[in-house]
Amino acid sequence: MIAVRRAVAEDVDAVRQIGLTTWPVAYAGLASEEFITDGLAQWWSPEVVERGIRTGLTLVAEENGVLVGMTGLGQEEGFWVMWKLYVLPDQQGRGVGKALLDAAVAALPAGTSELLLDVLVDNTKAIGFYEAYGFGEPLRTPTRDLGDELKWMRLAL
After folding, report:
1. The predicted structure's pLDDT at residue 4
2. Contacts of 96 (CB under 8 A, 6+ apart)
3. Are 102 and 134 in contact (CB under 8 A)?
4. In what order do the strands lie in the sheet with 3-6?
5. Does pTM surpass 0.85?
6. How far is CA 60 from the centre of its chain?
7. Whether 19 contacts 43, CB under 8 Å
8. Residue 41 contacts by C-beta under 8 Å, 6 or more apart in sequence?
9. What is the mean pLDDT of residues 26-53?
10. Among the residues of the chain, which ranges form H helices?
């Protein structure tokens, strides 16, 4: 059975391993090798993962004592943003992502009216997952320019 809980400092290595395992698979054919290599270094270093657990809202999905997925949320310009949602490739299609997303929404502060995320415009698998959950076009977004390769999505709460 999949259980979702808040990550603790002792989860840093396991959370990092989810990213290091999932990123190359998730972005193969969608992004350059340079993007993948740079992203792994920038967003999955031990320091960045530890800081996300310590200062943000990081949740992990666990089954039989093994972490199989994670999500990370934080704020940008007053918006709640889901920065990461990754499930180990061999665990996808089992409801882990939905369980993480359900828990992420439930963990947001009372009165939160929306959750944003950014996604590669060519990542049709992820976009389909988010649309099936209820994400759509945002009414407003942070001012950060996403360029042509990313787009914002919004879940009204």
Report:
1. 98
2. 2, 61, 68, 69, 87
3. no
4. 3-6, 57-63, 66-76, 79-87, 114-120, 150-156
5. yes
6. 11
7. yes
8. none
9. 95
10. 12-27, 33-43, 46-55, 96-107, 124-133
SS3 73: strand
Give the Å distances, CA to CA, from 75 to 4, 22, 46, 66, 122: 21, 24, 21, 28, 25
| Cα(117)–Cα(146) distance, integer angstroms | 11
pLDDT in tens, 116-133: 999 999 999 999 999 999
What distances in angstroms separate CA 70 from CA 30, 53, 59, 97, 141, one per listed residue?
21, 11, 6, 8, 24
Residue 147 one-letter amino acid = G
Structure tokens at 86: 């990754």
Q: How confident is the model at residue 43 (pLDDT cuts 50, 70, 90)?
A: very high
Taking the C-alpha atoms of residue 131 and residue 109, their distance in angstroms, rounded to an integer, is: 23
Average pLDDT, the chain: 96
Nearest-CA neighbor of 110 among 80, 152, 130?
A: 80
pLDDT digits (tens, 9 = 90+) for 64-90: 999 999 999 999 999 999 999 999 999
User: Which residue type, as a one-letter code, is found at position 137?
Assistant: E
